[in-house]
Amino acid sequence: MTSDDATFRLVHDLIDSHLTIATAESLTGGLLCSTLVNIAGASDAVRGGVCTYATELKADILGVDRAHLARTGPVDADVAIQMAQGVRTLMGADIGISTTGVAGPGPADGHEAGTVHIACVTPEGFTQREYHFTDRSRTQVRTAAVDAAITLVSDVVTRGHDEPNRVE
Description:
It contains 6 helices and 5 strands.
């Protein structure tokens, strides 16, 4: 299935299930939300998106714990989970999806280019995944992150979370 097909299927699965989604993006810079709204009818499922590219905005807008950000930096599994929960709450969505990581071309915050954390939060809990899209251009890393986020949300919508988790 092409990424366009996967996005189309996801948006229509959300609509058919009467679910809404909101995006919290860092390295993808709004590309995930833009990809979702490219699908006709997306307004029935997509609540909106927040691009918190600057680290402090993750705390200011999405409520990510400042002490945690100071300890780990923005490229972190728990930061991704908190971003997804924050945007879900902020936008009143059923599903929050977040992307944070290093697009490249070089390393940042102690992480190699291509390191990406994606989290999906629903009322039932969360699923977080870490990816390493190495030896790719900045654009390819960002595109791969969007594709991975769409796959993650699709998996959660169709099969549920990987493990029972709760967002505190």
